[in-house]
Design the sequence.
């Protein structure tokens, strides 16, 4: 049974005269891995920001499991959508474990008083949180680095840690913004497996990526955004065959062509 | 400058580049250090000057006096470090890395304090004629270890003079791990450090004249620096991390012991003021150090607490002179009033990002002072008596224990300020508890996350506004709590101390400086910073109008050379110094946490 997890309806985002996202309708169903591709500056990240409340869309609504989300990032996360960032935004001077614990913020309740009084409830909640965080670190393979500062991790591990931090909020939908940017082919492949494993945990995934091989291996469905508009949406085969997509990407065929899988500088 | 190529290369194994900065045979360096240290200590048994006009009476032979005690201590330390460099059994732990930096630094400390004393005598009494032979002997003797330390072979080669000097006083990257010790030895070490710390601190507070305090500062600064470069401070902080609750208990025992060492209540007064200042700085550390909110008007919350306590103290000059709250109620009202003001200031501004909060708090601080100045019945409602403030605040009384009277406890007489000092120790203990517990919890982590990256923190589900408001209000109410005691300690409250910047603490600039100087995000840092910033203007009377300038220069130097503050938070240390993987916890064996799982996946 596929039920829609995320429904974006008619989302438009304007910055002054520039329309970065134009009337985009978009759905992600439970258990799906959906790709979002498009040339640089197409509005993919802006669309993510609209979904997660970092931007208030000029028009349109975003709903999660049937309820319309208020455009406040912390409420969106609480509802069940977690994300990573295109340019890694870890808490650089916190340890690996602490980063993941921060991710658990919405799933715990202990406030100042319980922290000061340290009752049994507080201790249990801290222990549980740490257990869940360690389990996630084992899942992404960073358990042995729990006490390292995030800033000292190699790049690929920072990207993974960002995913673990997002998963710590127990989301129903995970948004990944270019999770393999800057990774070598080996790391890209492990990330691919990681995304499948996340889906197997029952989390739907929406992923932005410029690496076409990664996208077409991974996704059940792919949407193409060009100049803020959704051009095509469908299975990998449909999208790869669509000539408008080919044209949008400078008329080059996709598969493995390095000129179309160039990295991203932002 | 000239090349000296006299020694044939076959003579000694190391290349000639491994020479010291002073062209002496390296083999003479350690003997010079040892003999010089002993000679320096011995010289303090002679008379240095002929007249008792110079404070401290340096005219007697046979035992050290006044400033001579400092030279004596420094000379002894130099000799001890030299013996440690000789690898004498039982003293090797002093220089675990076997580096030369601590030797040079203690030698400089002894040289500095001795020469400072000799010069001070000469200048104050007008001429070299005022020096007895002992003074000259001390000056020469203290120079010897310095020459010896500079003659030590360089550990690095081929640099210009400045870098060579810098390297000579640098801490080595790698300090060998301490040998495993039994918990008893560790606790004994912590106790010993607490006792020595209390003695050193008490000596500093009890210095009676500016010269003695400067000599004291020279010795203390260089000794601590030497211990740092020897790696002993790192080892000690590991020790503390492994015995946290014992260390905390010893710290508070030492703090409680302080008034029992004092015969003059004046010094207990300094003690209680340092505690008030330190407690407020620690409260500010929650706001600035943990949540990263720049609060430039923090002293106003201290003022709100103090005025609240004064108004309900039963003072006849209070607007509500009939009302006399018991202390617990006054303390709660002071904290609550500050809390309310904190929320009023915070609620509209904490929604914004960036520097708005700094500007609004700066404004609030000034508005508070000007408002209490004007609420005198003429230009405003009659509440605070304007510039005259609220005088004759009665002393606290607690279950029949009057804080204003001297009490005999176990043979010691505790005066008025000693009583308040002990009350303040309790309040400080409470604030330390609040700070440590809040920092190590869900809310503390969200404060740090907000400070690190507010966008990412909100995207992780943190309600930025709410947690910032909690930090701001908590900081405000802790300052208000301290303010209620400070009102009683000073007998009266007046608007003047609660300003942004002034030449004596507390004021917002000094509070912020105490936090930054001591070390943001630590417990000990703001307390140390507060002690320093209180003692310096108190002891160095001649600085008076120049003290702000002096602190400005000191802060700039600190930001240049040690931006993480005197006591570094591990996080901030790593933030400012690229040290690669230093955070790989080789300390885990010392803490009671389970060892790191080394098994990868
Ligand atoms: N806050 C903003 N203010 C003004 N313009 C913005 C803002 N954010 C994004 N834009 C503009 O919106 C357009 C879309 O940018 P966006 O970052 O969404 O592209 P993208 O598809 O993620 O590209 P890339 O593949 O390079 O990451 C760009 O022209 C960008 O300059
Ligand atoms: Mg983007």
Sequence:
């Amino acid at each position: 049974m596929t039920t829609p997890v995320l429904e974006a309806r008619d989302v438009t985002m304007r910055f002054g005269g520039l329309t970065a996202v134009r009337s985009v309708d978009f759905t992600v169903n439970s258990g799906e891995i959906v790709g979002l591709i498009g040339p640089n500056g197409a509005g993919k990240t802006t669309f993510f920001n609209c979904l997660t409340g970092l931007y208030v869309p000029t028009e349109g609504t975003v709903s999660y499991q049937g309820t319309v989300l208020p455009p406040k990032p912390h409420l969106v996360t609480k509802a069940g959508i977690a994300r990573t960032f295109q340019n890694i935004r870890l808490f650089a001077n916190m340890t690996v474990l602490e980063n993941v614990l921060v991710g658990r913020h919405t799933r715990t309740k202990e406030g100042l008083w319980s922290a000061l009084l340290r009752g049994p409830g507080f201790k249990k909640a801290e222990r549980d949180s740490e257990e869940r965080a360690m389990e996630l670190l084992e899942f992404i393979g960073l358990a042995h680095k729990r006490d390292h500062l995030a800033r000292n991790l190699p790049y690929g591990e920072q990207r993974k840690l960002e995913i673990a931090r997002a998963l710590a909020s127990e989301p129903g939908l995970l948004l990944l913004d270019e999770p393999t940017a800057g990774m070598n082919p080996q790391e890209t492949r492990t990330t691919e497996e990681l995304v499948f494993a996340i889906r197997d945990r029952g989390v739907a995934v929406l992923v932005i990526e410029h690496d076409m091989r990664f996208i077409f291996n991974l996704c059940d469905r792919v949407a193409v955004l060009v100049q803020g508009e959704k051009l095509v949406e469908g299975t990998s085969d449909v999208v790869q065959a669509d000539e408008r997509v080919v044209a949008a990407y400078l008329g080059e065929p996709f598969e493995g062509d390095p000129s179309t899988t160039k990295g991203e500088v932002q | 400058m000239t090349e000296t190529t006299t020694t044939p290369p076959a003579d000694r194994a190391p290349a000639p580049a491994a020479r010291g900065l002073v062209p002496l045979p390296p083999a003479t360096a350690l003997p010079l250090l040892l003999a010089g240290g002993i000679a320096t200590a011995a010289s303090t048994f002679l008379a240095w000057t002929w007249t008792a006009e110079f404070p401290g009476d340096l005219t007697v032979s046979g035992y050290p006096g006044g400033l001579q005690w400092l030279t004596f201590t420094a000379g002894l330390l130099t000799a001890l470090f030299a013996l440690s460099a000789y690898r004498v059994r039982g003293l090797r732990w002093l220089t675990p890395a076997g580096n030369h930096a601590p030797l040079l630094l203690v030698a400089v400390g002894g040289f500095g304090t001795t020469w400072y004393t000799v010069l001070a005598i000469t200048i104050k009494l007008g001429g070299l004629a005022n020096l007895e032979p002992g003074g000259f002997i001390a000056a020469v003797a203290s120079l010897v270890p310095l020459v010896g330390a500079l003659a030590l072979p360089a550990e690095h080669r081929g640099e210009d003079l400045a870098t060579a000097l810098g390297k000579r006083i640098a801490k080595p990257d790698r300090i060998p791990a301490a040998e495993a010790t039994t918990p008893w030895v560790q606790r004994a070490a912590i106790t010993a450090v607490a006792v020595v710390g209390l003695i050193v601190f008490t000596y500093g507070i009890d210095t009676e004249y500016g010269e003695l305090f400067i000599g004291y500062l020279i010795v203390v600064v260089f000794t601590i620096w030497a211990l740092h470069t020897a790696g002993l401070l790192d080892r000690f902080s590991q020790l503390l991390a492994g015995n946290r609750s014992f260390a905390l208990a010893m710290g508070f025992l030492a703090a409680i012991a302080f008034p029992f060492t004092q015969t003059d209540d004046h010094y207990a007064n300094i003690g209680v003021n340092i505690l008030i200042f330190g407690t407020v700085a620690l409260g500010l550390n929650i706001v600035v150090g943990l949540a990263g909110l720049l609060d430039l008007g923090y002293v106003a919350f201290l003022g709100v607490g103090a005025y609240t306590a004064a108004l309900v103290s039963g003072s006849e000059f209070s607007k509500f002179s009939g009302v006399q709250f018991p202390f617990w109620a006054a303390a709660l009202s002071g904290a609550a009033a500050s809390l309310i003001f904190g929320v009023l200031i915070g609620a509209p501004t904490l929604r914004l990002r960036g520097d708005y909060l700094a500007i609004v708090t700066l404004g609030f601080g000034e508005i508070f002072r000007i408002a209490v100045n004007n609420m005198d019945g003429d230009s405003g409602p009659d509440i605070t008596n304007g510039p005259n403030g609220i005088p004759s605040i009665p002393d606290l009384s607690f279950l029949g224990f009057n804080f204003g009277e001297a009490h005999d406890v176990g043979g010691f007489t505790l005066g008025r300020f000693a009583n308040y000092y002990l009350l303040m120790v309790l309040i400080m203990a409470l604030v330390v508890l609040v700070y440590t517990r809040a920092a190590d919890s869900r809310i503390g982590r969200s404060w740090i996350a907000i400070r690190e990256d507010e966008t990412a923190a909100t995207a992780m589900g943190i309600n930025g506004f709410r947690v910032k408001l909690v930090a701001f209000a908590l900081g405000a109410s802790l300052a208000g709590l301290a303010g209620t005691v400070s009102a009683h300690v000073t007998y009266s409250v007046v608007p003047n101390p609660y300003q942004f910047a002034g030449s004596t603490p507390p004021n917002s600039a000094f509070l912020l400086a105490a936090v930054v100087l001591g070390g943001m995000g630590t417990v000990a840092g703001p307390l140390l910073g507060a002690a320093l910033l209180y003692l310096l203007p108190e002891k160095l009377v001649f600085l008076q109008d120049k003290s702000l300038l002096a602190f400005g220069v000191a802060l700039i130097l600190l930001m240049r050379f040690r931006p993480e503050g005197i006591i570094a938070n591990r996080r901030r240390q790593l933030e400012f110094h690229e040290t690669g993987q230093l955070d790989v916890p080789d300390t885990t064996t010392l803490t009671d946490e389970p060892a790191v799982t080394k098994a990868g996946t």
Summary: The CA atoms of residues 33 and 219 of chain A lie 5 Å apart. The first strand of chain A starts at residue 4 and ends at 15. Residues A 15, 18, 20, 38, 40-46, 86, 264, 266 surround adenosine-5'-triphosphate (ligand 1) (CB under 6 Å). Chain A has a mean pLDDT of 90.
